[in-house]
Write a structure and sequence with these properties.
The protein is 0% helix and 42% strand. The protein is mainly β and 198 residues long. The chain folds into two domains: 79 residues, Efflux pump adaptor protein, beta barrel domain (Elongation Factor Tu (Ef-tu), domain 3), CATH 2.40.30.170; 70 residues, conserved putative lor/sdh protein from methanococcus maripaludis s2 fold, CATH 2.40.420. The strands form five sheets. The chain has a five-stranded antiparallel sheet, with no helix packed on it. 12% of the residues are buried.
Length: 198
């Protein structure tokens, strides 16, 4: 972000360190792996948001482009003069061709879905999930036929592994797949949910 020294300059190691151009500073770098938007929100609205709240970030210079984000930090003190609290929203997939440090942005908080409208969380035992090269998949049984289905993993929980995409509520999953399983093979599902190959 800033360069304090040029080729051939002398740097005095061991002098008193001063942030921003001190005797030992060479350059100031930005961590682009963790891009965040800092926003002041009205302290009256702080109870409406929480860690993990969904956010949309739009840059002032590119108002037609929006980026998904989540609230990751709420500062511990409010600004009494402004009546605001500072928060940080972490951008999920920042486009570094567009997003630059210190740019101005607008942040919109999305309303959390109620428990009644949220999609059910699908969790499978860890033994059911397979990874081959770059693909993550599970084996499902539909109409007595085994099928390999690509999935997107979520978090690991005490109950198993959350599946974000690829499975629907009610799908039958092979929890301990055999090495010789193949698409289209006929299987029968036992009473205790352990598949028996035919």
């Amino acid at each position: 972000m800033k360069k304090y020294r040029e080729l051939g300059d002398t740097i005095n190691f061991g002098c008193q360190i001063q942030a921003g151009g001190g005797a030992t500073d060479i350059a100031q770098l930005a961590d682009t792996d963790d891009m965040r938007a800092e926003v002041d929100i009205n302290e009256a609205d702080i109870a409406k948001v929480g860690i993990g709240s969904p956010v949309v970030v739009a840059l002032d210079s590119y108002p037609d482009k929006q980026f998904d984000a989540a609230l990751v930090k709420v500062y511990p003190a409010a600004d009494r003069q402004k009546g605001t609290v500072k928060i940080e929203a972490q951008i999920a997939r920042p486009d570094l061709q567009i997003i630059k440090p210190e740019m101005s942005a607008k942040v919109s908080f999305l309303e959390n879905q109620s428990a009644a409208t949220q999609r059910p969380r699908i969790t499978v035992p860890e033994t059911a999930v397979r990874v081959e090269e770059s693909e993550t998949y599970v084996w499902t049984v539909r109409k007595g036929i085994v099928q390999r289905v690509g999935v997107v993993r979520g978090q690991k929980t005490e109950a198993g592994i959350e599946i974000k995409q690829g499975l629907n509520d009610g799908d039958i999953v092979v929890i301990s797949p055999h090495a010789n399983l193949a698409n289209g093979r006929k299987v029968s599902v036992g009473a205790e949910s352990n598949g028996e190959m035919k």
